[in-house]
Fold this sequence. Notes:
It is built from seven helices and three strands; from the N terminus they run αααααβββαα. By secondary structure, the chain is mainly α.
Amino acid sequence: MGEGAADSPPPAEKKGAEEDEDDFGYRLFPDRSKKPQSFLVRSLFTFHNKCQLMLKLTLETNPYARLLLEALKQSGCTVFNDRHFSCENCDGCVSGGFDAATSQIVLCQNNIRQQSHMNRVVTHELIHAFDHCRAHVDWFKNVKHLACSEV
């Protein structure tokens, strides 16, 4: 081996570190990388059905969600409930997220238990969806874009 070889980590360690850097928070949403479960399994053995019902109620009755959905539509980004929202199990520290790669709002069915919480999460994530649509936010390379959307 050459002299500098002891200073650099083995290739496997380098790969793991690079994957951590490129994770973009997906580790908090483990269901994003799994094969989808059947409807029966999702409905009977998870909070999926309750999540879907709470989402439907939010989208139909919450004035902020309705305002944001209309703003998205006016900006040319119509939202389809079955395409742009996904109820999934997540890490215990998050309630939802916006996946820019798929333009999907992820709702953490195992962490959202009350309608008021669902209302807040959907509204917050719809703001990110609007910013993604209208302002073409660079989520991972421009921290000012991310900060602006969070405020």
